[in-house]
Amino acid sequence: MTTRVTEPRLTVDFDKLLTMAGADLGTTDWMEITQDRVNLFADATDDHQWIHTDPERAKEGPFGAPIAHGFLTLSLVIPFWGELFDVEGVTTKVNYGLDKVRFTSPVKVGSKVRMAATIAEVTEVKGGAQIKVNATIEIEGQERPAVVAEFLARFYK
């Protein structure tokens, strides 16, 4: 499995962050979902359901192929986020949580996914700022996305 090391497409300072509500951050590069990645996630989460980890049986299953775990697809928000955006001039950056998540379409092994993101809200909090990001993980060649989520991040000065 290849590790994606990339500089964020947009880096802003903290003061600029406070003005970014509504900013469209664009999309990431495509990432292929491999069986190796799915198997590693299954090992990490102890979720070895056959629709994810048994390619031969999964061919006969409801999706016609093995699929990525929904939470695997959701976890890609982290590397995708790092590809799109960063904030300088802060001491701490944390994932604060999720307000809404929907797994709207399965991701078959071999598919490529990417994330589109918009900063929906910026709120000042004690010592920093919180942002709400509307994130959509798209599947190449499909109209319906894999994941639609609102995630929260905090940046402390």
UniProtKB/TrEMBL annotation:
Q: Which Pfam families match?
A: MaoC_dehydratas (PF01575)
Tree of life domain = Bacteria
Q: Which CDD domains match?
A: NodN
Q: Which residues form the MaoC-like domain?
A: 21-136
Which family does this protein fall into? Belongs to the enoyl-CoA hydratase/isomerase family.
PANTHER family in the record: MAOC-LIKE DEHYDRATASE DOMAIN-CONTAINING PROTEIN
Q: What name is this protein filed under?
A: MaoC family dehydratase
Upper classification of the source organism reads: Bacteria, Bacillati, Actinomycetota, Actinomycetes, Micrococcales
